[in-house]
Amino acid sequence: MSGAHGQGTVPVGEPGPADLRLVPPALAAWATAALTPDAPPARTVGIVLGCLACGVLLLAAGRSGRAPRWARGRPEWARSSIAAVLLCAAAAAASAGLHGADVRRGPVPELARRSATVTVEAELTADPRLSRPRVRGDHTAPVAVLVQARVLRVEESDGRSTRTRAPVLMIVDAGTPAPGGGRAAWLRLLPSTTLRATGRLVPALAGGERTAAVLRVRGGSGPRVVAGPSGAQRLAGRLRAGLREATDGLPGDARALLPGLVVGDTSRITPELDDAFKATDLTHLLAVSGSNLTVLLALLVGPPGLARLAERRGLAPRLGLSLRATALLAGALTLGFVIVCRPDPSVLRAAACGTVALLALATGRRRSLVPALATAVLLLVLYDPALARSYGFLLSVLATGALLVLAPGWSEALRRRGVPPRLAEALAAALAAQAVCAPVVAVLSARVSLVAVPCNLLAEAAVAPATVLGFAALATAPVGLPLAKALAWCASWPAGWIAEVARTGAALPGAGVDWPGGWPGALLLAAVTVAVVLAGRRLVRHPWWCGLLGVLLLLAVVRPAPLTRVVTGWPPPGWRFAMCDVGQGDATVLAAGAGAGVVVDAGPDPAPVDRCLRRLGITRVPLLVLTHFHADHVAGLTGVLRGREVAAIETTGFEEPGQEAEFVRKEAAARHIPVTRAVAGEERRTGPLAWRVLWPPADTAPAFDGPNDASVALLVRTGGLRLLLLGDLEPPDQQALLRSPRAAELAGVDVLKVAHHGSAYQDPELIRLAAPRLALISCGTGNPYGHPAPPTVAALRAGGALVLRTDRDGALAVGGGEGTAGPGREVEVTREEP
Questions:
Q1: How far apart are CA 72 and CA 682, in angstroms?
Q2: Is the model more confident about 811 or about 346?
Q3: Residue 362 neighbours by CB distance under 10 Å
């Protein structure tokens, strides 16, 4: 190798086959660390002593020439490898046992079993973060602040104080965000900060993170800080805060994504954006990962494609740095990267792998990243055995291993068949990573993404510029905020592209398919993947077959509406009304012309209602009616708004619960959608639809007992059918409808959307008057409320109604009634096939 690439060039030969000698010891340590933390101490000691004795005996016997009987006849390298596996397993068992004992040691676990109220002095070990909003029944569970910490001192109610070092998860009920206090004050805390908190200890969940207990804290007044963070964490905090300030003026997606992509700050990531990244298997880009460090090191030491060589590319030779100086500078960069980005599994893996590679670079020797990766895994699981059970760590290692082992061969095969080199490398990398990671993702999500590979290909081109410009903004923010804002603005273009790829991919009707969850499902998917890879090796020799299969896959992902209707029969031609299957909640659609539909309620989760509207072909919503503000009717609002033109939102005037009402106002204001109040007597028409609002009253509202009493109720006419939609009206309000001047119009409706998910609280007189031929109930499978109530179903059937429910029958579509009037008109109902 000539010296054309700069000072310090080291002659190297052609790289040989990958060195796999460290792989078995690393896997043995990983498996042992994953299996032994919860083992009884005696069993752990037995494993350690047994493996240690066998390993030492094998090494000693090999040197003396008297090998054990089971090892005789084996070559020296095999005996050494077996000994290394045994010794690494012993070390991992010892480390896992000590860490497990550390969790169980001290008074915290016993206090947690007694649900004791204590005052602790604790040191933060990670950045505080917000829990994700969850719908529980008709309310959204309060968002809490989650804090990983290490308890240094615990004081019991009797005044007894004990020193300890127990890891805990603090769940802080800090109320709503408030400048200078409450939730905001907790979220500003930095790792290594020491604070005092009073709360109730409860046992940690089995199989969760490595914690001795959970401490539930009421922290509305803010944290009580005992000691501030370390100097390194203060510097990292200033840098991260500077990046947030530099990105404040960016568009929504780039503002949320850029801090996460650069330093792992995901505080601005919305649940909707998070779901889009999960649906497209782009979560490794949502937060900082080892790829970020790879990009930075590549700028310094050269491109990753030369990783097997002591290359002299990048900025280092142009700055006149020697080989060892380059390694030292890269090591300092790696350490700073881990501190600023926090030691997440992927970051730790990348840092350890990079450190081993840098040591090889400093000595000027040949290196291979496969042993570097194996060494990283070995060191990390010995240092922190909890990583052995981390899905993030597993995905990170699998993806890196696929890129090192599978991708080069696949790339070469693609190049031999005429694929351009750059495209072949990118395609092989995406395919290899997806092949090995998909089974693990299926364990977590019970779903397989069909758009992961193209989305990763499209996003990958933007990762490097977004990362480099983002880190430049991070470094310049403390000294020149205007320059940092300019750099962040430049970075917002590639970051916005990544977010748009995720949203577009997730919005495709066939973006993913349901798959059996758990490890049995993972094994099944792994078997299918192996079969596809083996078949693919034969298919690449037949371009026409490849093209045909590609077209079929494209059709399965895009699912054109005419083709989908022919294949699945959904939605049925001429449908008038559809009830979406959104679990324990309500979301219904009234057809209002080609691609248009009036949506009544949005369900408890954005994904199901978005999927339902997509399958129905709804792209325009002339009106979205939210009958009341319970979470099981409005929490899915962003799913209705996703990628659709929504002209207006109409709601009840009773704005409780306040949290959900504020959520609706905020989302509507962000998209400039007018919000109006529905009042009894209001009549509207759009396309083939005509409806009148029956409730709530137009005059001064009565003293409602709760949001259900203020539900918007509608009487709808479409295509000769009459539908009565009752929201969640309670019996007193149903009785008030019977006393209204136009109550006679409620008689003999074709379709009844049963109030309150078919609960037992129904007015029998209204059911008898309505006398529906079809009664539809929206409820969730196995819901804790017993919906629908057997007496309600019995009363409806006694009146001659066909009763269908989403928990058993899935999504439902109603048609018929064209050109007919009166009791003889036909009502057709279609169930969506799973």
A1: 92
A2: 811
A3: 18
* Helix, strand, coil share (%) of the chain residues, nearest 5: 50, 15, 35
Predicted confidence (pLDDT) at residue 598 exceeds the cutoff of 70:
yes
In this structure, which amino acid lies at residue 226? V
Cα–Cα separations (whole angstroms), residue 535 to 379, 430, 784: 38, 18, 47
Residues 208, 30: Cα–Cα separation, whole Å? 18
Residue 133 is encoded by which pair of tokens?
């909003």
Rounded Cα distance, 91 and 440, in Å: 27
Lowest mean pLDDT among 41-50, 62-71, 145-154, 205-214: 62-71
Residue 573 has pLDDT above 90, yes or no: no
pLDDT band at residue 10 under the 50/70/90 scheme: very low
Residue 248 Cα distances to 152, 241, 487, angstroms: 37, 11, 13
CB 829 within 8 A of CB 813: yes
- Give the DSSP H or E segment for 529: helix 518-539
What is the DSSP secondary structure assignment for residue 724, as one 8-state letter? E
Query: What DSSP string describes 610-650?
Result: HHHHHHHT--EES-EEE----HHHHTTHHHHHTTSEE--EE
Tokens representing 8 are 């310090």
| Dihedrals phi, psi of 200, to nearest 5 degrees | -110, 125
**How far apart (Å, rounded) are the C-alpha atoms in residues 735 and 747?**
14
Q: How far apart are CA 349 and CA 370, in angstroms?
A: 13
What pLDDT, on the 0 to 100 scale, is given for residue 8?
Answer: 33
Q: How far is CA 812 from CA 141, 235, 775, 820, in A?
A: 29, 57, 11, 22
**Residue 495 in contact with residue 261, Cβ under 8 Å?**
yes
CB contact at 8 A, 102 and 599: no
Question: Mean pLDDT across the stretch 299-306?
Answer: 60
Residues 6 or more apart whose CB falls under 8 angstroms from that of 546 comprise 539, 540
CA distance linking residue 603 with residue 138, whole number of Å: 10
User: What pLDDT sits at residue 725?
Assistant: 95
C-beta of residue 731 within 8 angstroms of C-beta of residue 761 = yes
Pairing of strands 194-202, 213-218: antiparallel
| Residue 320 burial by Cβ neighbours in a 10 Å radius (0-12, 13-18, 19+) | exposed
* DSSP 8-class letter at 569: -
| CB distance 246 to 473 below 8 Å | yes
The number of C-alpha atoms within 13 Å of 202 and in the hemisphere containing its C-beta is 8
The dihedral over CA atoms of 424, 492, 354, 313, expressed in degrees to the nearest 10, equals: 70
What is the value of pTM for the model shown?
0.82
Q: How far is CA 207 from CA 108, 212, 386, 389, 696, in A?
A: 18, 12, 11, 9, 49
Q: Which pair of tokens denotes residue 163?
A: 């020193």
Confirm if 366 and 15 have CB atoms less than 8 A apart. Answer: yes
pLDDT given for residue 200 in this prediction? 92
CA 351 to centroid of chain Cα atoms: 24
How many CA atoms lie less than 13 Å away from 772 in the CB half-sphere? Answer: 26
DSSP assignments along 745-806, one per residue? GGTT-SEEE-GGGG-S---HHHHHHH--SEEEE---TT-TT-PSPHHHHHHHHHTTPEEEEH
Average pLDDT over the chain reads 83
The predicted structure's pLDDT at residue 833: 67
Is 609 in contact with 640 (CB distance < 8 Å)? yes
Angle between helices 231-246 and 323-341 (to 10 degrees): 80
Query: Residue 337 is encoded by which pair of tokens?
Result: 């990267």
- With b for 16 or more beta-carbon neighbours within 10 A and e for fewer, the 445-464 pattern comes to bebbbbbbbbbbbbbbebbb
Predicted pLDDT at 309: 45
What is the amino acid identity at position 722? R
Beta bridge partners of residue 123, listed in sequence order: 150, 194
**How many angstroms separate the Cα of 821 from the Cα of each of 721, 742, 825?**
8, 20, 6
